[in-house]
Amino acid sequence: MSSSLSTRMTPTSLEAASPLSKSASVWIVCGAAIGLMFGFGPMFFSVAGVFLKSMAVTFGWGRSDVAVLPMFSMIGTALGAPVVGYLADRLGWSKVLAGAIVLMAISMGALAVAPASHVYFAVVGLLIGFFGAGTTAAGYLGVLPRVFDKRLGMALGFAMIGTGVGGFLAPVAANRFGAMMDWRQWYGVSALVALVLGIVAHRLMFRNLPDQKYFAADVQATASAEAGLTLREAMRGYRFWLLAIVMFVMSGAILGGFVHIAPFASDRGLGHTVGAEAAGLVGAGLAIARVGLGVVLDRVFGPLVACAAFLVGALGFVIFVTSASHIPSMVLLAALLLGISTGSEGDLIPFMARRYFGKRSFGAIYGCLFGAATLGGAGGPFLYGLAFDRLHSYTLVHQASLAACLLGALAILLMGRYPVDKAANA
Predict the structure, then answer these.
(1) What is the pLDDT of residues 299-339, one digit of tens each?
(2) Per-residue pLDDT at 410
(3) CA-CA distance, 210 to 190, in Å (whole number)?
(4) Cβ distance 414 to 302 under 8 Å?
(5) Coiled-coil ranges per the record (predicted)?
(6) What are the beta bridge partners of residue 56?
(7) For residue 351, is it left (φ>0), alpha (ψ between -120 and 50) or beta?
(8) Which of 42, 63, 180, 256 is 20–30 Å from 91 (CA)?
């Protein structure tokens, strides 16, 4: 492909074109972190495993029946992420994120009155995921590459702390408050918290942006002159599809294991507390990975970082498929390793998307790649539940996830060098 990143250079970030003050930079990153902390991932997806058994008991369903809810929510996120990027490139990130916050909260609140209907669960799950896509990394992190340049990796890493902290606290809180309220009340309260704190995060971000032209409808006037590829150009090359497929497979394997950690620990006779703590440690792993990787990505070749992160996930599954899975401390260690591995995706996707495809159509390209990863995450929990219902064991699906991590670690190295003075996707 003849398109070159170096032939279409204009100021592509506010940091480069109009340097941000230190305080403004901090507040923008803090706003993104708070938004992610109270967005779709922590407030909904991270607690799905905690309530999986109780929801199944309420309706007399199997685990795969209840797993329809997180599965369709992830499908909705996979569909919503490209839409978020497309609309943000045209309407501006501020309007898109504001709408996403409100609509996701309304959709979550609908679970508080959920009837015993598979269709209702599927539709509500789809809506939560679709509208919630704007409250995930697809939304908040989509802003940062147009704000930061040299410090992008660090900004992404610190912003993604929100997902890690939220992912750690939400399952623990759900387990503790579960003694005082049922799952219906939990989702009702969560919807209100997500709405209020989401609005706070939105205002922190956009009140501190010194120049709104990169976040309004006229962004298209400058986008055509920016360095990088269009979505269509990116999709013609192997790098786009390689990155999409690897993230799809890795998300399915690791998120599937994450959602089913609590019931897996319970089946091992380790108790509900260990399961909730394990789910919380996944969040801790997310925080560790995202801060560490954010700094490392500014200094180390991205595919090498990804390879190492995926191998860490493989170690977690090694614990699950051996006798070590009967030891509470080892299960907690495995959960931490899975969190570190899956936490890498949040930084890697936007960072590698910008490095390999530029900023010209960053919103659309990033949205599609994030959607691919989310689609994988949608199928993972369902396949885990299906495997358990059919085999009454997680062993086979854990072994498959281990293989996926190893293959993903090797495949990501095929991305090759960052395009600089040659075609961006040759």
Answers:
(1) 888 899 999 989 999 999 999 988 888 888 888 888 888 88
(2) 95
(3) 32
(4) no
(5) none
(6) none
(7) alpha
(8) 42
HSE of 364, CA atoms in CB hemisphere, 13 A:
17
**Could you tell me if 31 and 204 are in contact, meaning their C-beta atoms sit under 8 angstroms apart?**
yes
- The helix/strand/coil state of 423 is strand
Q: Does domain 20-207+226-415 match CATH 1.10.287.1490?
A: no
pLDDT at 149: 67
Buried b (16+ CB within 10 A) or exposed e, 142-167: bbbbbbbbebbbbbbbbbbbbbbbbb
pLDDT average, residue stretch 34-38: 92
Place of tokens 């997180």: 70
Contact 356, 241 (CB under 8 A): no
Give the three-class secondary structure for 4. Answer: strand
Residue identified by tokens 């599609």 is: 368
Model pTM above 0.90: no
Position 211 scores a pLDDT of 55
DSSP string, 360-387: TTHHHHHHHHHHHHHHHHHHHHHHHHHH
Ramachandran quadrant class, 271 (left: phi over 0; alpha: psi -120 to 50; beta: rest): left
More confident residue, 6 or 310: 310
The backbone region for 211, taken as left when phi is positive above 0, alpha when psi lies in -120 to 50, beta otherwise, is beta
Taking Cα atoms as reference points, which of 76, 220, 197, 88 lies closest to residue 141? Answer: 88
Residue 376 structure tokens: 């994988």
The rounded mean pLDDT for the chain is: 81
Are 28 and 20 in contact by the 8 Å Cβ rule? The answer is yes
Phi, psi of 164, rounded to the nearest 5 degrees: -65, -45
- Fill in the DSSP letter of residue 149: S
Amino acid at 288: I
For residue 66, the 8-state DSSP code is: H
Residue 345, token pair as written in the block: 């995706």
| Mean pLDDT for the stretch of residues 154-176 | 80
Give the pair of three-digit tokens for residue 373: 């990863």
Round the CA-based radius of gyration of the chain to a whole number and report it. Answer: 20
Give tens-digit pLDDT for 366-405: 888 988 887 887 788 888 888 888 888 888 999 999 999 9
CA distances to 57, 59, 165, 379 from 75, in Å: 25, 23, 24, 8
- Locate the domains of the chain by residue range: 20-207+226-415
Could you give the CA distance from residue 426 to residue 423 in angstroms, rounded to a whole number?
A: 5
